[in-house]
Amino acid sequence: MTFSVLAGAADAAATPAWVPLAYLVSGVFFILALRGLSSPATSRAGNRNGIIGMLIAVATTLVTHDIANIVEIGIAIAIGGLIGFTIARRIAMTAMPELVAGFHSLVGLAAVLVGWAAYLNPGAFGLLVDGAISPVSKVEMGLGIAIGAITFSGSVIAFAKLSGKMSGSPILLPGRHIINLGTLAAIIVLTGLFAAATGPAATLPFIVAVTVLAFAIGSLLIIPIGGADMPVVVSMLNSYSGWAAAAMGFTLGNTAMIITGALVGSSGAILSYIMCRAMNRSFISVIAGGFGADDSGGSGEPREQRPYKQGSAEDAAYMLEQAEKVIIIPGYGMAVAQAQHALREMSDVLEENGTEVKFAIHPVAGRMPGHMNVLLAEASVDYDKVFELEDINSEFAQADVAFIIGANDVVNPAAKTDKSSPIYGMPVFDVDKAKQVFFIKRSMGGVGYAGVDNDVFYMDQTVMLLSDAKKMVEEIVKALD
């Protein structure tokens, strides 16, 4: 998306006939990239197609536009590429969700900066008509700046929540819905006034107000959203970043930005909607900043301690050896412990023993869409052994063992029974129907990301395995061997 900064150098010269075709080809590669990223099996090809598409788009822009200083542009690309390459090589999978949120913030900020650059120097962007910016261009500019600012500040809050620098529990301000709706209405009105005004002295106050209010509403929309809904937020912010780029594409008259922004915006919105349906959440309520959330929500503190059964690796190994069918439910705790490779080794040993092993992935397992799928793919778990909630939930009644590793909220029956719970209404795995449940958790002192206790800990068939997830699984594998 930072391609928008390069596209900002567009001039008013006639566009060569081959340029739209080149941008169309890059758009096709972006579509193929999205198609490839829809499955772990084709994700590498999807990434390659995205890289090819971006190279075509950037090269076309550089070749066909009057760049003030190609050396400076080259240095900027090299520095950005080096930083991105270094981060990609060093980042842990546990930190991937906040990294994605951080990158979304940069996309939003880029849109804001390009919009302001176009406003301050419209002649360099080919926006002047009879010596002034047209009202249509002002509307596009205002929308691009507003969406970009919302994306930036919202992504910063998401980054803080995902990285633990801010509480994952909903932060509910009094009268937040009135404030949010009023702020959004003010942004729309101010954008209209900005488009109607003429001259720098008249337009500057409006565009400043739009920018400031958009930065504010971005934060206000995200802070009321709790941890259980954060994967939807990541997807939603991805959609916002796309629409910001598309709006800037209209302002700058750049086809590639419009195509790319529309693809990212629409795909992110569709993914957010699919996830909301899977979680039994209202799509409108989530994008409106937790509209309808119960101000009394979860306290974030565990309830009074109740009796539970604690077991060892040897206990788990014995029961797993006797099992005919095992369903493994991974969660963020597995990612933190980097236990996916040990888990795959455990599943291999069980399958060699004749046990049927399946992996159950919840739509919001982890901190972003597909987090667990990527981790299991990294550990070379066969894709045909990984199932979504709706495809496997009915099989828990036939399972001998439900093996929960680092998951919590996605197996919490409070989602079905406790209307005061912040996760109420979210579909969860029916692990209570399995004959035996093993639950790997560091200690009994913590609660899930949504901040609520879990009745599964205290069920008669549940045995708690209190340890680091990787260490516990390695001990189970050793006992199995």
Would you kindly provide a written description of the structure presented here, covering whatever features stand out?
The protein is α/β, with parallel strands linked by helices and 481 residues long. It folds into two domains: 3-287, no CATH class; 313-480, Rossmann fold, CATH 3.40.50. Helix content is 57%, strand content 7%. It has helices spanning 3-7, 18-36, 43-64, 70-90, 96-120, 135-162, 176-196, 200-222, 230-252, 255-278, 283-287, 313-322, 332-337, 340-352, 371-378, 389-392, 414-417, 469-480; strands at 128-129, 132-133, 325-330, 356-361, 386-388, 401-405, 436-441, 462-466. A six-stranded parallel sheet has the order 5-4-3-6-7-8. The protein has a two-stranded antiparallel ribbon with strand order 1-2. Helix 17 links the parallel strand 6 (401-405) and strand 7 (436-441). Helix 12 (313-322) crosses helix 18. It is elongated, with a radius of gyration of 25 Å. Residues 1-13 and 291-302 have low confidence and may be disordered. Its main location: membrane. It holds the Pfam family PNTB.
